[in-house]
Amino acid sequence: MDFPILPDELPESPVSFYFEDVIFELPQEEQLAQWLLSIAEVEQTVLTEVNFIFCSDEHLRAINAEYLDHDYYTDVITFPYAHDTVHGDVFISVDRVRDNATTVGVSFEAELCRVMAHGVLHLAGYEDKTPEKKLEMTAREDFFLRTCPIFSGAV
User: Fold this and answer.
1) 45-63 CB burial, b ≥16 within 10 A, e <16
2) What's 85's DSSP letter?
3) Is 139 exposed, middle or buried (0-12, 13-18, 19+ CB in 10 A)?
């Protein structure tokens, strides 16, 4: 009997998830990675590498102060490493996502999907500094939120 030749290593996903100073279980990691890849594809850009780093409010506030000179809490900070491809780090405060979900009356999963899509959209070239750009970003987030594998509600 001949056995198939298997590769030494399966190809790594260009989407990685890390946990800095929080204990947090990310549901359906493989499906989320595929969903995030599909966002880049729909936006007609290539996702080469994106690292999602989940952390606490305090950790993200320290990053915000050190690198962006903003001394306040935020839910997501994106650091792009290329302009012609989706490549960068997306830091997400799990604490802020949880609080924001409660404030706007949505599930934690819905808000988590929104900020993850937000990070990819920033890396794909979207901005949200003006009211018009913010409206466009929110519309794209809403569009992609409908297909997030860990969210099954209406937008």
Assistant:
1) bebebbbbbbbbbebbbeb
2) S
3) exposed
What is the domain-level CATH number for residue 52? Answer: 3.40.390.30
**Residue bearing tokens 């890849």:** 37
Give the pLDDT confidence of 10-23 residue by residue, as tens digits. 457 899 999 999 99
Q: How far is CA 70 from the centre of its chain?
A: 21
The residue among 61, 49, 141, 53 whose CA lies nearest residue 92 is: 53
pLDDT tens sequence across 13-61: 899 999 999 998 999 999 999 999 999 999 999 999 999 999 999 999 9
Q: How far is the C-alpha of 55 from the C-alpha of 89, rounded, in Å?
A: 13
Residue range(s) defining the domain that contains residue 59: 15-145
Give CA–CA dist 119/15, Å, rounded: 12
Residue 149, both tokens: 């594998």
Alpha carbon distance 76, 67 (integer Å): 13
Structure tokens at 60: 């993200």
pTM of the model: 0.89
Number of independent structural domains in the chain: 1
Q: Are 141 and 118 in contact (CB under 8 A)?
A: yes
